[in-house]
Design a protein that fits this description.
The complex is a heterodimer. Helices cover 34% and strands 25% of the residues of chain A. Chain A is an alpha/beta fold. Chain A has 2 domains: 231 residues, P-loop containing nucleotide triphosphate hydrolases (Rossmann fold, 3-Layer(aba) Sandwich); 234 residues, P-loop containing nucleotide triphosphate hydrolases (Rossmann fold), CATH 3.40.50. In chain A, the strands form 4 sheets. A 6-stranded mixed beta sheet of chain A has the order 6-7-8-3-9-10, sandwiched between helices. In chain A, strands 16-17-18-13-19-20 form a 6-stranded mixed beta sheet, sandwiched between helices. In chain A, strand 7, helix 6 and strand 8 form a beta-alpha-beta unit. Chain A starts with a strand and ends with a helix. Chain B is mainly α. Chain B has one domain: ABC transporter involved in vitamin B12 uptake, BtuC. In chain B, 71% of the residues lie in helices and 0% in strands. Chain B is globular, with a radius of gyration of 20 Å. The model of chain B has no long low-confidence stretch (mean pLDDT 91). The chains are: A alpha/beta, B mainly alpha. The interface between A and B is medium-sized, with 28 and 25 residues.
């Protein structure tokens, strides 16, 4: 079976998720669709699997263009997809999940379905109980089940979207063995969507690389990892020189902290952050950076370890106490967590300014707003609701809201969605605070940003952290390898 | 007929409308839509059935008209949710008030007028079985329907393919969509079906249980809504909840005539609500999950089936592709 994607384009609002992408897939081979977060991999695969329609371009199966209006159309043409979050029904049993959506008569015909399912389980030597409830299974087992389900529908092209996130090493090996045998022995086409270089090199025969919605290159695997990294991240920016800042006493001491995220546990993180230092937290999305930062602000209770701010034990204390010690946190979701979209700039300051009185001093709030908005170059009026500002201005405003004399500033994706100019401005402001002795810890998915601004880098991968003490000769490439799990 | 028999018979009879409305709402909610308008819908459809029966003399037309009213209200709920993207809760709430007022306004000329009644139809032979006979087989067709409905819904939801699909769109509509289920269409279908049953419940009140049209129906719809939660979205338990409430009400009425026990009837009437709150607290506390977790593996699926206590995950949320 031969499948082609011809000139696929797709936009969401102003974001061009896919731009004129043309790729081909042969039977019996394992392909990787490789790219960083937001490169357009998932969108492309959702188009190929009929989940969403392309704006233009066509999917060609064995020489004939096919119309894919729904995932079932794609399955009829032999294309099935395993979604990143398993799309199954957790409160149903495995057997019920197997039956749901299968063609058949009015009755459930559990008996026939059970025989069919058991035969598949045996064939692949999986350990699945048809009567188990799906919400009691691990992610790995749910993937196994979904693969069986798709195979039972005679799928010949199997797309897997980030299948190794959240499964154990053993499950990963088992999964890869099954995928290899499906390709080698049954002539199926396997497409692995991933940003993990390690997985791609271990499993795939070929890799297509996407960057910012465009197809940027093809490699036969195995190949040197650096070649893939170069395709994924493009240009490598040299680290900017900047005036040295004398670091002061430790502001934040993280001692053996463990945090749990939705899918994995990050164990025993230790880190000492000094006044005036900038620490970059690098890692793939959801590797535990967000959780660590939240633990350092009292928004999340670590499962083990201690957190000290200015030498004072703060583990398990609530956020207001952290704030009193001069800690501030800017989350990635500006409008979701950081600001209140429908409230005006003045109202934000009225909420933020410290006061003992039960009423609002609007005169003072207005005066402070006007001052700060001007000082931080926010393009907006004191009376405009925050949601009417552009992303860059929202971020400047969020910075303007922070008190002046902070000890520790934690930021999550501080330049997310900003253009280059706004991003530079934000960093100018941040580095100025650093000169006043504020320690900065930031998370960023942009490796360039991490390399450019960090004094030290903490890399998150697979529940572990690695501290890079001297990023002077660290390149975005090398960092890309580290967050991909290559030591 | 013994006292016990007549009490139980009365419970089966007086619970019938709540059983029917409860099953209807259960179907709707299992599809992921919450139709909050029950209280108003029941009043409006009860009034409609009463008036049509009086005007046309046809009970069949009266029942069908009541069901149409229920479907019409349900259509507003599901249409405004799917096509207009309005909040189901807000729309349902407004409809509750609107329908109740409409029922009172339109039904004014027929208020407290003698109404027609569904004819009594005892089932020969079966009605002579001791205890069971008088309790279950000595009613009219709407009461029999309420009993059959529970069995039918149980069977449909757990034993048939369309029933599994119904559960799937209320649970994880995205996964149902990927499997080729027309999620939005089925949400229309099941909301309308549920609405028709709520209308039937209204007809059961005015043509049988509380003969005629009075405004004292207000509150019954909320009970039906609460019972769906109390029954944890399972048909059998929802019906059980309805009989429990009817039973307690019957006890409360008996207490009023009882000189020995001096307990205000209101206390007994409040019991179901306490029970519901306790049920909800247990169901959402995670205790049941722990019980299941510590059950020996062999009995886990059984324990799980019996104790599973979660609302349909997509309840009240519109379905959109990501």
């Amino acid at each position: 079976m031969h499948v082609e994607l011809n000139h696929i384009s797709k936009t969401f609002g102003r974001v061009r998720a896919n731009q004129d992408i043309t790729l081909g897939f042969e039977g019996g081979r394992i392909y990787a669709i490789l790219g960083e977060n937001g490169a357009g991999k998932s969108t492309l695969m959702k188009i190929m699997s009929g989940y969403q329609a392309a704006d233009s371009g066509e999917v060609v199966v064995d020489g004939a263009a096919v119309d894919l209006h729904a995932p079932t159309d794609a399955i009829e043409h032999g294309i099935g997809m395993l979604y990143q979050d398993p799309l199954d029904f957790p409160p149903f049993t495995v057997l019920e999940n197997f039956i749901a959506g299968r063609p058949g008569g009015f009755f459930l015909e559990r008996h026939t379905a059970r025989q069919h399912l058991n035969a598949l389980i045996e064939r692949f030597d999986f350990d699945l109980d048809p009567d188990a409830y799906v919400d009691m299974l691990t992610i790995g087992e749910r993937q196994q089940f979904e693969i069986l389900r798709l195979l039972s529908l005679n799928v010949r092209v199997l797309i897997l979207d980030e299948p190794t996130t959240g499964i154990s090493a053993g499950q990963k090996t088992a999964l890869f063995n099954v995928l290899k045998s499906l390709a080698r022995d049954e002539g199926m086409t396997i497409i692995l969507v991933s940003h993990k270089l390690e997985d791609v090199i271990e499993l795939c025969d070929e890799a297509y690389v996407l960057r910012r919605g465009r197809y940027v290159g093809h490699k036969n695997v195995p190949c040197p990892m650096s070649e893939l990294v170069e395709l994924m991240f493009g240009r490598v920016v040299a680290r900017q020189e900047r005036p040295p800042v004398s670091v002061g006493e430790p502001v934040l001491v993280v001692g053996g902290v463990s945090v749990e995220s939705r899918r994995l546990t990050v164990d025993h993180v230790s880190l000492e952050v000094h006044a005036g230092e900038v620490i970059g937290l690098a890692g793939l999305d959801g590797s535990g950076q967000g959780e660590l930062v939240r633990a350092c602000t009292g928004l999340l209770r670590p499962t083990a370890g201690s957190i000290r701010i200015n030498g004072q034990e703060m583990t398990g204390r609530p956020y207001p106490q952290f704030a009193q010690s001069g800690v501030a946190f800017l989350p990635a979701g500006r409008l979701e967590e950081g600001l209140i979209g429908s409230m005006t700039l003045t109202q934000h300051f009225a909420l933020t300014l410290p006061t003992n009185r039960p009423w609002v001093n609007w005169f003072r709030a207005h005066r402070v707003t006007t001052e700060r908005v001007q000082h931080f170059n926010v393009k907006g009026y004191p009376g405009s609701p925050v949601q009417t500002l552009s992303g860059g201005n929202q971020q400047r405003f969020a910075l303007a809201l922070l008190p002046d004399n902070l000890r520790l500033l934690l930021l999550e994706n501080p330049t997310r969605g900003l253009d280059v100019e706004s991003a530079l401005y934000i960093w100018e402001q941040l580095l100025r605070r650093r000169e006043d002795g504020t320690a900065i810890v930031f998370i960023s998915p942009e490796l360039d940003e991490i390399v450019a601004y960090s004094d030290r880098i903490l890399v998150f991968f697979g529940g572990h952290t690695t501290l890079v003490d001297d990023p002077a000769d660290m390149t975005a490439n090398r960092l890309g390898e580290l967050i991909g799990g290559r030591m | 007929m013994t006292g016990l028999e007549s009490t139980l018979r009365g419970i089966v009879r007086s619970a019938a409308p709540i059983v029917i409305a409860g099953q209807g709402e259960l179907i709707t909610e299992r599809a992921g839509v919450i139709n909050l308008s029950l209280d108003g819908t029941i009043m409006l459809s009860a009034m409609t059935a009463h008036v049509i029966a009086r005007e046309t003399g046809s009970l069949t037309q009266a029942v069908l008209a009541a069901m149409l009213v229920g479907m019409a209200v349900a259509f507003v709920v599901v249409f405004s949710s799917i096509a207009l993207r309005l909040s189901q809760v807000a729309v349902g709430f407004i409809l509750t008030i609107l329908c109740a007022d409409l029922a009172i306004f339109l039904g004014k000329p027929h208020f407290n007028q003698p109404g027609k009644e569904i004819p009594h139809a005892p089932i020969p032979v079966l009605k002579d079985i001791p205890l069971l006979g008088p309790v279950f087989f000595d009613h009219n067709i709407l009461i029999y329907l309420s009993l059959l409905l529970v069995v039918a819904v149980l069977f449909y939801i757990y034993r048939t393919r369309p029933g599994l699909t119904l559960r799937s769109i209320g649970e994880q509509p995205e996964a149902a969509f990927v499997r080729g289920t027309p999620v939005q269409l089925l949400r229309y279908v099941y909301t309308l079906a549920g609405g028709a049953l709520v209308g039937l419940a209204g007809a059961t009140y005015s043509l049988s249980v509380k003969l005629g049209w009075k405004e004292d129906l207000s509150g019954e719809g909320w009970i039906a809504l609460a019972i769906v939660i109390f029954g944890l979205w399972m048909p059998g338990r929802v019906a059980l909840g309805a009989y429990l409430i009817a039973g307690l009400r019957s006890v409360a009425i008996d207490l009023q005539d009882n000189d020995v026990i001096d307990l205000p009837a209101q206390i007994v009437n409040m019991l179901p609500w306490f029970l519901m709150i306790i049920t909800l607290m247990i169901a959402t506390s995670g205790v049941l999950e722990k019980v299941v977790r510590f059950t020996p593996d062999r009995f886990k699926p059984a324990a799980r089936r019996f104790l599973r206590a979660a609302p349909p995950r997509a309840l009240g949320t519109p379905f959109e592709k990501h």
